[in-house]
Write a structure and sequence with these properties.
This protein is α/β, with parallel strands linked by helices and 287 residues long. The chain folds into 2 domains: 182 residues, Vaccinia Virus protein VP39 (Rossmann fold, 3-Layer(aba) Sandwich); 75 residues, Adenine-specific Methyltransferase, Domain 2 (Adenine-specific Methyltransferase, domain 2), CATH 1.10.1020. Helix content is 30%, strand content 13%. The protein is built from 10 helices and 8 strands. Strand 2, helix 3 and strand 3 form a beta-alpha-beta unit. Helix 4 packs across helix 7 and helix 6 runs antiparallel to helix 7. The two termini are 13 Å apart.
Length: 287
Amino acid sequence: MLRSIADLEAVGPAASAAASSDGAAPRPPLKWAGGKRWQLRHLEPLWRPNAHRRLVEPFCGGLAVALGLKPVRALLNDVNPHLINFYRHLKEGLKPTEAFRNLKRPYYEARDEFNELLSTDHGNTRRAAELFYYLNRTGYNGLCRFNRQGVFNVPFGRYKTINYFTARDFRPYIDTFRDWTFTNTDFDDVPLDPDDFIYADPPYDVEFTHYSKGGFSWDDQVRAANWLAKHPGPVVLSNQATPAIKKLYGSLGYSLTLLEAPRRISCTGDRTPAAEVLATRNLPDGA
């Protein structure tokens, strides 16, 4: 079933301030290509009647959705181990210490140090978290990209000034993350409870798939859609609205809603909104 944006928003009042309606939750700590903050006004009416549930994100990325919806309990997973390492250190009280300030150094030297840590079986995970944050704030467009050998290869963003440290206080994340669990595994190994509310935002059905070592293929898209279709609780699945994706999700009984997504990154400079789809299952009638 294909629905319009108007149908979705009719569920409840628009929630454009969902990410900061009471100022309780901090903003996402990282720059993140493809972040879903813009989706919050569509997601919040779906989440509101389910807020007693645990929120599960098999592809948590930059945390825009979790921090916007502000669940009490959450299980947040990502296949990118460096991302999860950073979040775990935030939860444990990562501070912008003097060593952190000393990260103001040539970008490619920091990238080399980060990759050297990745090649060490028992590297300094805290230092890796600090470097990951530095590279995120100074790399090109907030991209997180690895080659087939697992080497981080994002180029410098060519910023005139680097404000990655200015006024940054990580302390609010300690309280926010208190009852949130971060895991690093393949999505279908995420331990689910039957009544979990799942928001899944897998890598887009596009040519670029090397968000992590190994990539994300069409077979993975099919595997994810089928895995989520078996969950008895509420499911919201987001992806680029390619013909193949719409056909796949429709064949599995998802209700489809088309949205216009802002295009913030483009190699051609094209900022025309891109079509995305929200595919839902096991939501109340009208939701």
